[in-house]
From TrEMBL:
GO molecular function: peptide binding; peptidyl-prolyl cis-trans isomerase activity; unfolded protein binding
Keywords: Chaperone, Isomerase, Periplasm, Repeat, Rotamase, Signal
Domain notes: The PPIase activity resides only in the second parvulin domain. The N-terminal region and the C-terminal tail are necessary and sufficient for the chaperone activity of SurA. The PPIase activity is dispensable for SurA to function as a chaperone. The N-terminal region and the C-terminal tail are also required for porin recognition.
Source species: Acinetobacter qingfengensis
PROSITE patterns hit by this protein: PPIC_PPIASE_1, PPIC_PPIASE_2
Gene it is expressed from: surA
Name by which UniProt lists this protein: Chaperone SurA
Taxonomic lineage of the native organism: Bacteria, Pseudomonadati, Pseudomonadota, Gammaproteobacteria, Moraxellales
Cellular component GO terms, alphabetical: outer membrane-bounded periplasmic space
Occurrences of domain PpiC (ranges): 179-278, 288-387
Primary enzyme class: isomerase
Length: 438
């Protein structure tokens, strides 16, 4: 077993290590030595012993052979060093999880332990030893922060070009992932008698392939090219997802244009020929509602109090109700310079772009109407929806999905590269000579 196996295991069990450590954080440790110094942090002998015990348990549960004790301890220590290095970076960058996300993570762990509420869970932990719940919560917060750090660092290294996306969408894997379907004719050319030679079968298959270029009649083709020594069996496969077709055949189909035939495909049961009749994407469309929107923003400032901002937006609203032109008032009064120059126009806006308060009012306002004044984190707004439309975003959705799949493929490689760089740039002093590399 090599260090990569331990690394993969740690990625799946890091949270378990952190949680386990927190439960025993206040246990009495008569003698505890520093095994390694990592930047401003340290790894204790008890940390290493506990991590080794957990990794052993994980390996045994997977029926894997345990490596020699010293090799296991060295590999586990390396992973603890990497974790400590990430923890130190989290502290430097001041990364902290949102309170709601932390609460959800702690509650999820509590439910795994059989508790339905955080209050009950906290009482049980603190009854065992005062401060256990706070320690556990801190460990989970650290785990979330490390994951966030890793995402930020690694995703910035991943590059997916438009050409990469184009190539992926043309590939069998890409078309299968996006639900593409193909309509195929499938022919098998095989020996019919013992006297048939490989050359006979190849000749018939070549003739069939030429014949397929201008003919889709299966029965006619079967009868025309079969003979006493060679059989031709054709069938209409109908529309099928590329995921349902054997990978070797799907790879050949993906490069075909509609109406084209594949090269001859040798197999144990004869020679296969495919013809692509049609290709289509999933019938489901990604239809998005867009809103052609204008707004007027009044922001509080050093010279405009929140109350003054509210009063000003109310005055503008009254003028709009009396028939004033929205574009003129936006150009005159709006504190959003980007849209004010264009009469408050935000263009066509799709859900998910604006802050929730703005989006709620926008989606509830009928086309041609003006909203009542409302407040967001940016100040007080009035918006007008000029028009509403449905837009087919299927192609854009497919490209985003392809980019995500390609990025995920790169992720593990980039994580490994980032980890190596992090380790190389981290100050580490291993105190135990037996745990150092030779």
């Amino acid at each position: 077993m090599n260090s990569n196996t331990i690394l993969k295991l740690f990625r799946n069990t890091t949270l378990a290590l952190a949680l386990s450590a927190s439960v025993h954080l206040y246990a009495a440790t008569p003698v505890d030595q520093v095994v390694a110094v990592v930047d401003n942090g340290a790894i204790l002998q008890s940390d290493l012993n506990q991590a080794v015990a957990i990794v052993k348990q994980q390996l045994q549960s997977q029926n894997q052979t345990l490596p020699p004790e010293q090799i296991l301890r060295k590999n586990v220590l390396e992973q603890l060093i990497l974790r400590e290095a990430q923890s130190e970076m989290v502290k430097r960058y001041g990364i902290q999880p949102p309170e709601a996300e932390l609460n959800a993570a702690v509650l999820n762990y509590a439910k795994q332990q059989g508790f339905s509420s955080l209050t009950d869970f906290q009482q049980r932990l603190d009854a065992q030893r005062q401060g256990n719940y706070a320690a556990l919560r801190a460990q989970i917060a650290e785990e979330i922060s490390i994951n966030q750090l890793r995402q930020q660092q690694v995703m910035s290294r991943i590059k997916v070009s438009e050409r990469d996306i184009d190539n992926f969408l043309k590939s069998p894997q890409g078309q299968a992932a996006l639900g593409y379907q193909v309509h195929l004719l499938h022919f098998r050319v095989a020996p019919k008698s013992a006297s048939a030679t490989t050359e006979n079968v190849n000749d018939v298959a070549k003739q069939l392939r030429v014949g397929l270029l201008g003919n889709n009649d299966i029965n006619t083709l079967n009868q025309k090219y079969a003979n006493a020594n060679v059989t031709v069996e054709g069938s209409d496969m109908g529309y099928r997802s590329l995921a349902e077709i054997p990978a070797d055949l799907a790879a050949r189909v993906s490069s075909l244009q509609v109406g084209q035939t594949s090269e001859l495909i040798p197999a144990q049961d004869g020679i296969h020929v495919l013809k692509l009749i049609d290709r289509k994407a999933d019938d489901k469309k990604a239809m998005i509602t867009q809103y052609q929107t204008r707004h007027i923003l009044i922001q509080p400032s050093e010279v405009v109090s929140p109350e003054d901002a509210k009063q000003k937006i109310e005055q503008i609203y009254q003028r709009l109700k009396q028939g004033a032109d929205f574009s003129e008032l936006a150009a005159t009064y709006s504190n959003d310079p980007g849209s004010a120059r264009d009469g408050g126009s935000l263009g066509w806006v799709a859900p998910g772009v604006m802050v929730p308060e703005f989006e709620k009012i926008m989606t509830e306002t009928p086309a041609g109407q003006i909203s009542v004044p409302f407040q967001t984190q940016y100040g007080w707004h009035i918006l007008k929806v000029d028009n509403v439309r449905q837009v087919d975003m299927t192609q854009e959705y497919q490209r985003r999905m392809a980019k995500q799949i390609l990025a995920e493929r790169q992720y593990d490689t980039e994580v490994d590269g980032w980890m190596r760089e992090l380790r190389a740039n981290t100050y580490v002093d291993i105190k135990d000579p037996t745990l150092k590399d030779n």
